[in-house]
Amino acid sequence: MDCLDTQVLDAARKWAAAGHRFALITVARTWGSAPRPPGAWMILRDDGQVQGSVSGGCIEDDLIRRAAAGEFAGSAPRLLRYGVTADEAHRFGLPCGGTLELVLEPAPDAALLEQLAQRIATGQLVHRRVALASGAVSLEGGSAGDSQQWDGQTLVTLHGPAWRLLIIGAGQISRYLATMAQALGYRVYICDPRSEYADGWDVPGTERLAAMPDDAVTELSLDPRSAVVALTHDPKLDDMALLEALKSPAFYVGALGSQANNSKRRERLLQYFDLSQAEVDRLHGPVGLPIGSRTPPEIAVSILAEMTAVKNGQNFRSTVAVPDPYACRVA
């Protein structure tokens, strides 16, 4: 689940502890363009306060109005549809004729939400199953690679730890990348055995791993919700991480450097190390999308843009090299 939906879960627990009633609304399915993806959460409190979102705002306003009018009384979950007609899509601000199916739970079980939060906190992936016909809600174990399921009667959403990002190198680019990645819901780890860099690392919310890069990769037990970005520009350190990361199920593995330096890197990985051509081909190097980035924050933006594209199934690569701010250094 992303950081926005984690905020919704946290708010739901606080509201329940304070004795508030609230409804939980989940995006079950979308057609056309939609502002929020399937699985997105929103909670609506009995006094009209909202946390999270299911659209750009118009649908939230209608849900608040309908709740105030008493339409969502009771406890049984139900299906809501918006944007079925062109006129309705226009009225609710859904672009390109978008349509949303929402599952509304007027009175979700607070104990189950608390249990869900506790299981996520221990690193578990969890399925939350909502059956409209019976109203039953249950939690089940999930696994990497699972996805949301919706057949019109039963909604199964996947919840679990935030996406993870391991950054090799505690330099300037890493500071911007770590801060931006946290805003996108990543749990960020930093590894740099060079004390002159690591000792000054003070980015809030990140976790520093006191290990060599290859050991740090192994320690994290990377899964398909993990990414590794090597930014030291020192092959003795970056390559150590890449050797392990490219063999892992991590969805994204990238390394800083010019086109020429990354070509040499691929040759090294193939010639001297136990990596297959397919594993080496997984490397995103030069790291990031070619958007003309030159400054550390611009490079961080390009890296996160490419990570987001790959994460969302838009895995395209360009032959245009990303400018290397350290091109004068030998790699």
In short:
This protein has 331 residues and is an alpha/beta fold. It has helices at residues 3-17, 58-68, 86-91, 110-121, 172-183, 195-198, 213-220, 235-245, 259-272, 277-280, 296-311, and strands at residues 22-31, 41-45, 50-52, 78-82, 99-105, 126-131, 137-141, 149-150, 154-159, 163-168, 186-191, 207-208, 226-230, 252-255, 283-284. The relative contact order is 0.09.
Can you give keywords for this protein?
331 residues, alpha/beta, Rossmann fold, 2 domains, six-stranded parallel β-sheet, five-stranded antiparallel β-sheet, 11 helices, 22% strand, disordered C terminus
Provide the fold topology.
Elements: H1 3-17, E1 22-31, E2 41-45, E3 50-52, H2 58-68, E4 78-82, H3 86-91, E5 99-105, H4 110-121, E6 126-131, E7 137-141, E8 149-150, E9 154-159, E10 163-168, H5 172-183, E11 186-191, H6 195-198, E12 207-208, H7 213-220, E13 226-230, H8 235-245, E14 252-255, H9 259-272, H10 277-280, E15 283-284, H11 296-311
Parallel strand pairs: 10-11, 10-13, 11-12, 13-14, 14-15
Antiparallel strand pairs: 1-2, 1-5, 2-3, 4-5, 6-7, 6-9, 8-9
What does this protein look like?
Helix content is 34%, strand content 22%. The chain has 331 residues and is α/β, with parallel strands linked by helices. It folds into two domains: 3-159, no CATH class; 163-311, NAD(P)-binding Rossmann-like Domain (Rossmann fold, 3-Layer(aba) Sandwich). The strands form three sheets. The protein has a six-stranded parallel β-sheet, sandwiched between helices. Strands 3-2-1-5-4 form a five-stranded antiparallel β-sheet, with helices on both faces. The longest helix has 16 residues, at 296-311. The protein is elongated, with a radius of gyration of 22 Å. The two termini are 38 Å apart.
